[in-house]
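User: Here's a chain of 233 residues. Predict its fold as tokens.
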Amino acid sequence: MEWFAWGIYRGVAAVEFARYLNVIASLTDEPIRVIAHSHGCNVVKLASSLPSLSPKVTIEQARFLACPHFYEDKYTQEDLSWRDRLDIAKVTKANKVSGHRFRYKLAPQRFGKILNVYCEKDKVQVDIAKSLSGGQVPLTGNFLENILAQLTGGTHEAAKATRREMDKDAAYLYEDLEVQVEHGCSGIQTHSVMHGSLVGRLAGIWLNSHLSIQDMLEEYGDLPALPCDDSGE
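Assistant: Prediction complete.
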């Protein structure tokens, strides 16, 4: 059942990361910039929405590498008579998708801008990440708060993962960049090279240039296909 607890671990990591950001913000006025990979991005997103995060904390720039952006469908049910409620087919038909909810919902006011980097060949980001989503909402409060979160916001279906953010409240923060890998890279290799030296160089330039990603690429040149062995180890 360890897979079931991974969502809990991300909640714990988010609490610790929020504490760390609080310390940083108390020590310096320097802008905070964050680079995160895979589920680490979801830890950052979750930490930004915690009540324990200091009002002084703002992440000026965040770089998300191969982030599995999770969402679940929200349903509303049409009013049914008591007779119709006994009919499974009618109950199923009465459930309508009415939007989405987000297991790792970020607080938009905490961010300046976010660069979301992904590769369509990355099989881990979406396909495997869905199986590692954890079976419940991340636990970030005290015992009673966590129980309430499970009762009111727990998972009702398997979470879906996408390469781009689905939350319309946060969409304006994002710049999306699709990168390519050399021919022959496996899906798992592709997930690894997303934190390699070439992507790292691009991250450094973007974090220091204050340009949009498209303007930056026009000035410095397009990023070549990522080598399969550039895993940043």
